[in-house]
Design a protein that fits this description.
The chain has 3 domains: 59 residues, OB fold (Dihydrolipoamide Acetyltransferase, E2P), CATH 2.40.50; 146 residues, P-loop containing nucleotide triphosphate hydrolases (Rossmann fold), CATH 3.40.50; 58 residues, Orthogonal Bundle (Ribonucleotide Reductase Protein R1, domain 1). By secondary structure, the protein is an alpha/beta fold.
Length: 293
């Protein structure tokens, strides 16, 4: 039986890349009975007749899965954040980072609209964002004058399945249009009354690029931690994970425990105060979550 990857899902149809062709398929009824939905990015076994549409028979085990956007087997998340229009929110940035860390997805942070900053603002944001570089995030700064997007981004996209994520209105679709001009994706201007962009992307699709695949995904302004357990949260902060080995108690949550290496690093100024405050907020958010049955 042939095997391929789902590169688009639309209106109950799944489009599978196979031998430089795209085969239109439906899912078998057995998936509905088992409450399994094929996702873009899934590696699948299928059957097809060249005269008719095919059928997906089986889905390989996923290495990861995102619900918003619905996609599987992602290698890296390119988190696009603007410093202005809309203003950069470290809280929202940390939410994205926690989500991708929990899924074992490598984050790359692209910061746009740097050209809109005053010199003082630029100094402030360089200091804040350099911290993310120091803890192991790849941070790239972009302005509207960075014309050759292909040359700039290609090294990060080759041979990988990449997903673009970030707040609406930060320039994800514009970035993709510069990267692959033939896409001509729809962009909407910022809704100034809301301070955020309108949703412009209607479905998830994997687009071939540089021997890799890029997903164009809906922008969203809020995410939740419904799939993250409380005890897993500290592991989603890179700098906490490294220091937790030196905490007195195994499974230290870095809040009230004595001889906590994370809190000591916070006191010494080695952990950014905003990151720790965001951690406390996320901790409370997960702790107060209603139990699932």
């Amino acid at each position: 039986m042939p095997k391929g990857r789902i590169i688009k899902a639309l209106s109950g149809f799944y489009y599978i890349e196979y031998n430089d062709e795209v085969i239109q398929c439906r899912g078998r009824g057995v998936f509905r009975k088992r409450k399994i939905t094929p996702l873009v990015g899934d590696e699948v076994t299928f059957e097809f007749d060249k005269k008719e549409e095919g059928y997906i028979l089986d889905i390989d085990q996923r290495k990861n899965e995102l619900k918003r956007p619905p996609i599987a087997n992602v290698d890296q998340a390119i988190i696009v954040s603007s410093v202005k229009e809309p203003d950069l929110s470290l809280n929202l940035l940390d939410k994205f980072l926690v989500l991708v860390e929990d899924k074992g997805i490598e984050p790359l942070l692209f910061v746009t609209k740097m050209d809109l900053l005053t010199p003082d603002e630029k100094t402030y944001w360089n200091q804040k964002l350099n911290y993310y570089s120091e803890i192991g995030c790849n941070v790239q700064f972009l302005s509207k004058y960075d014309q050759d997007m292909k040359e700039l981004l290609s090294p990060y996209l080759t041979d990988k399945v990449s997903v673009f994520a970030g707040q609406s209105g930060v320039g994800k679709t514009s970035l993709l249009n510069k990267l692959i001009p033939s896409l001509d994706l729809e962009t909407n201007k910022i809704s100034e009354s809301l301070g955020r962009g309108k949703h412009t992307t209607r479905h998830v699709e994997l687009i071939p690029f540089e021997n890799g695949l890029i997903a164009d995904t809906p922008g969203f302004s809020a995410i939740d931690f419904s799939e993250i357990e409380l005890e897993d949260l500290p592991h989603c902060f890179k700098e906490f994970r490294e220091r937790s080995q030196s905490c007195k108690f195994r499974g230290c949550m870095h809040i009230n425990e004595p001889q906590c290496a994370v809190k000591k690093s916070l006191e010494d100024g080695d952990i950014m105060k905003e990151r720790y405050e965001n951690y406390l907020q996320f901790y409370q958010e997960i702790k107060s979550r209603k139990p699932r049955y």
